[in-house]
Every structure is written in structure tokens, then in C-alpha cells.
Amino acid sequence: MWALALGSAAAGVLPVGLAARLRRGEPWEPCATEGLQISAPRAGRVPVRFGWGDSWVEGELQGGSPCSAVAFDFDPAPGVRKVCLCQAASAPAGRAGRELREELGAPWSRCAAEGASCACPSGRVRFGTEGRWALQRRAGAAAPVQCDAESFGTDPAFQRQKECWCSEGQPKAQQVRAAIVMLSRHPPEFATWLRYHLDYMGVERVFVEVEDTPRFNATWTALPAVHRQRVTVWHPNPYEKLAHDAQQRPVNDYETLQSRQLGAMDRAKTEAASAGINWLIHIDDDELLYSPMRRPLAEVLGAMPSDVEQAYIPNVEAVYPSAEVRNCFVDTAEVNMNRYTFASYANGKSAVRLDGPDAEYMEPAGPHLWRQAGGYELPSLHLDEEPFGSPLYVVHFESCPFSRWEDKFEELGNTNSEHIGKIPFQFYRESIERMQHCSATRSNTHLPRSPAGSPLSANVIASGECSELELKKLWSHWKTEANPKLTRRDLMALRIPWQQIMTGGPA
Q: Which long-range contacts (CB under 8 A, 24 or more apart) does 54-58 make?
């Protein structure tokens, strides 16, 4: 009577591709969470799946039946909160019978294959494929647009067959309030970071714990009052500052950093919930939330299904033009989409719902995600499984500019060999070991620091591996297109209207 699909029960994680199929109506759609009544998409008995992750049981039930193991006489994933999926009705068609897809409340219809002409009355057309898209916006009744890289000014998916889709109306989303929490130390472009998130992405509040108070104070006082009013600043407990004293490098800071991040996340959860914030995201001061379709953060989160309490946001890595880059955010035009070639982490960050049923019991399980107390995963959605790929990314501007890389790894150089061996990123290990070697060389030859305090700047006369030229070669080998692991197919243009953002003009 029942068809059973068994697999590894990943608590709370939809299997790869399932979320995207659900959003397309191919062929299932969510119709109840465990313990509630099934809301069937049509009258009569309908096929229903009950389970989570890769473990499901299937049968036919009437609308109004309970979504429970009792109804199916079987529990496919014991100890895990499950959902019911009902077989969907036929997918709707768009304008003139064109294929229609929905990206978290935003409907799009397919209007042209690459090389053809796309008629799109809304003037909003996306060009690309496989999660890599470029957007063109035209005011008023727009003339047809040619579906090719020349018309869009970029090729978002090099050597791939692309297509165009037309926006079919305003996105449907609830009004929500979103906040960011981060731990910050020596932020290189904090004013730019704030302007981008507060003014452009629509973040309502930022909670930031600052670990370098003297330098940050000057940055803070120079900020516009309208921005300071939307930022909550915490300073470390003075009794805990020894590990970050200006005269002492943190010991094994790669590992201790995460524990401090968790503390900031937990504190922000409490304060943000008290302030009526609906969603909270932890990112760093070298990361930007990026929407290829220029959707405000609150719009994306406001379109989340009501039973989703955590949304996983994939990360990509900035690829810099050269080691001479100064303003890393503004001067970077490309990102690496191939997570297997990242120099740092590749498991993204998450947005967590603060007004959901599990909010009281959730806690950070590392800087990338949250869990229920006891380690169970929250009901989650992976944004990169949406029909067009992720509508939101975390762009990681890691180790930029070059001077920040010097400072960062000079501090991380105070890490013993046992801990270095545990670091999963080759770029980090190579950078730490080079800085340890150069610090020892400087000490043995009594080379002075530069007036600016940079341990290995151009003012320090060094040779061999410790010269500025060789250090920049190492940095460029990982952080620019000189990286031999990168190919043109890995890269996508980063299209942010910085001129409008920085001047306050329309984006």
C-alpha cells in the first residue's frame, strides 16, 4: 500500500534539488507540517509524501487528514520534525503560454533562448543559466531586448547556453525586519559596508562587537548620525581583552575567534528579538549580502515559506583585479562561483527567523548556522536550490587589501604547528607559515618595523620570500585571476551600483 523511500535522514535538510522542484511544482508542494492538517491542492484523495531529508513514505490521503506517522502507519525519520508534500496541480503558464517560474514570491516567464529577442513589458529581464544571472532594467514600456551578452554588458555563465526570463509582476512578500550581527576587528571599509547594507540592501539594524576600540572610535565618530542610530555597538569585557591587547598577538586566534562570534550571535538574538526584528544574519566585516536581481533583503526573507525557520545563503569569493586594490568592495568586479577552489570556507551563512516556534530554543552552532537545543536542525531552506539558483549570496572579500592580509596573518602567526595543521584551508596554512618565517627572519636580522606599524611593508628592506614583491606574489596566487585553479567558467560579474550607493542616488 505504501511506497517507502529510504536514505540518509538529514535532520531538517531538504535533499539536493528537492526544494527547487517544489518551487517549480515538479511534482510536489508543501501542504502541512507534522501535527497539522493537510491542505490538499485539489479535492478528493491526493498523493502525499511524509518525511524529511532523504527519508519519505508515500500514500493517498484526503485534505484535512493529519500530517503524522499515525496516518501513514510508519515514521520514516524518527526524532526529526517532518513535513507533508502533496502532488501539485499543473504548473501555471505565463504571458502567451510561456513557462512560468517563481523565485521566492517573484514570478518570471521564459521569454527567449540565447540569441533570440525577448519581449518583456515590465522592462526587467534576467539573462543567464544555472544560478548565474545578469539583470537588465528598462523604464516604461520597454522595447524587446536581444538575449545575448552584448545587450547585458556581461556573460554571466561563460561557455554555457543561456536564456532570458521576464519579470511578471511585483514580488509577493510579507513585511519583515532584518538585522545583521558581526564581530569586527580593524574593519577596512566599515563606512562603505554600512552604507551598502543599510541604504541599499535595506537592513534595519546592525549589531557589532568591536575588538579594537581605539582605532574604531575614529571610524565611528566619522559616520553619519543616520547610520549610527541604526547600529548597536558592543565593546569586549575589559577583563577579557588580554588576548587582544595592542602589545600582544592573540594566541591560536583562528580557533578562539569562533567562540567569540558565537557569543555575539547569541547576544544579538536576544536583543534583536526584543526589538521586534524578524530575521537575523551573521556575516563578517569583509562580507556583503548580494542580490543579483537587486531585491532588498527584507523582500527575499519576507517571501520565505512560513514554516521555514532558517535559510542557508551560499557564499562566493571575490576575485581582485591585482595586489594594488585599495577599496576592495568598490573595485572588485568578479566573484568565483566554484566552491571547490575557494581559499576559505564554502558552506555559506544562514538567516534565522526570530519569531518562529523554535526561536526560544535555538542557539548558534558555529558562525554559519543555528540549531535547536540538543543539536536538531531547524526547518530549513537552501537558497541555492531555488529555480534560478540563489536569490541571495554572501560575497566574501577575504584578506583584502594586501595590507590587511599582512596584519591578519602576522597575528595568526602566533599559532603553533599543531593548530596550523588542523586549519582546513591551504591558503591560511601557507600564509601563516610564510609570516612565521618572515617574522623570524626579521627578528634574526633586527629589521625594524615601518612607521605605519606594518610588519613587512615596503619600508622594510627584505629579500627573498619576505620581500614585498614575493609576498604580493603569494597573495595574488590565491586572490586574483593569477590563481591557477581558476578558469573563466568559474567567474561571474559582480554588478553593484556603487556610484549611486555612495552618492545616495537611485540604484
A: 54/5, 54/6, 54/7, 54/8, 54/9, 54/10, 54/15, 55/5, 55/6, 55/7, 55/8, 55/9, 56/4, 56/5, 57/2, 57/3, 57/4, 57/5, 58/2, 58/3, 58/4, 58/5
